[in-house]
Give the backbone structure.
Amino acid sequence: MANYSMEIIPPPKEGTAAVLKMTVKNKPTIKVVGKDNYICGTCSNVICQNVDRGQIRNIVFVCPNCGSYNHIKGT
């Protein structure tokens, strides 16, 4: 299993992106069955756990721990 750091981006303008925000700290926003983890580019909190590369696209994640807006690089 590998950890991939997500890209930090500014908050997107309303209506321009799908934004997922989890309110429970220290819990992944998405957890499925796969090989890799995507972690917050600021605080290294696991945001997407056990996913396969390329499985998630075009979603902005708000880190529940630090509030940073994260995007998976290359999507």
Summary: The chain has a mean pLDDT of 91. The chain has no helices and eight strands.
